[in-house]
Automatic annotation (TrEMBL):
This is UDP-glucose 4-epimerase. It comes from Chryseobacterium glaciei. InterPro entries: DUF779. It comes from the Bacteria. It holds the Pfam family DUF779.
């Protein structure tokens, strides 16, 4: 039996920042928008601190926290695996919870093989 392939993963370095944010804020959520001010920087909020738009895609979880992306961005990147990483510095958004730590989350993308794409975990859509 084939297991479903995850659409999102996290580096150890990013996970350490997430643990720090969990201790301070509790439950979290991630949202990656598709343009304007925040560009495509993934943002981290307290759970419920951001409301996904209708038909945005929840592509998986990171340490049990939902990872949402903009519906239009998902259509562009649905063939890609997202790996959440973190770097020193300030991203363009500034609203994300890691910003006061002098960190910014970023995404590394890898295209799925055709076989992987056929066996992906299902996507949840907001209503």
């Amino acid at each position: 039996m084939q297991t479903n392939i995850s659409r999102v993963s996290v580096t150890e370095k990013a996970l350490e920042v997430i643990w720090e944010l969990e201790r301070k804020y509790g439950e979290l959520m991630f949202y990656q928008a598709g343009g304007c001010c925040e560009g495509t920087q993934p943002q981290c909020f307290e759970k419920g601190g951001f409301f996904p738009r209708m038909n945005d895609a929840m592509i998986g979880t990171i340490n049990s926290h939902e990872f949402w992306i903009d519906r239009d961005l998902f259509e562009y990147w649905k063939y890609s695996h997202f790996t959440l990483d973190v770097v020193d510095g300030f991203g363009p958004g500034g609203f994300s919870l890691e910003t006061p730590l002098g960190k910014t989350f970023k995404i590394e993308y890898k295209l799925f093989t055709p076989e992987e794409f056929e066996n992906l975990e299902p996507v949840k859509r907001s209503e």
